[in-house]
Amino acid sequence: MNTAGTVQVAVRHILSDKLSGGFLRPRTRTVTWKDSHFVVKRPASGKHTVELTCPVCSASLLAEVRNHSSTRTIASVLLVLAVLCLVAFFAAFAYAVHEGGKTLPEGQSLPVLFSVSVITIFVTFVAGPTLFLRSRGYIGVSMLDAPKPRRRHHIMSVRKAPQGVRTPR
Asked: Does the pTM exceed 0.85?
């Protein structure tokens, strides 16, 4: 359970990442991992860096933790942007249907705004759900860039109650 002063994260160690398939078969990607759960304290203001140790390979990983209010602010901004994408999608779709359904006299072409609305439909169709999912999963903890041998790690949010929870040093 996350409180305002802490957040639960999982350090995911990637054991293997295989890509199979080819020209005539569908491509499938198989990723296997082992994760360990940690409880990280949030700072009172700003952000600070914590060190998490992967129990699989003993790698030292640096993570940046934001305070609770800025985490909620960023998640809210992402959600508002997703809603704005939804509004822009429906407005552009309605305009494209309205202008595309007209019968034009010979020699006259559709307005430039029609092509802009079609592009807006495709962009917001991808950006809206992406922003919505990012806002739902944003926890305010991000892994800082690690050297080459430590790049086989990810920091994820914990969705269910873990069995063993560690606290970083």
From this structure: no
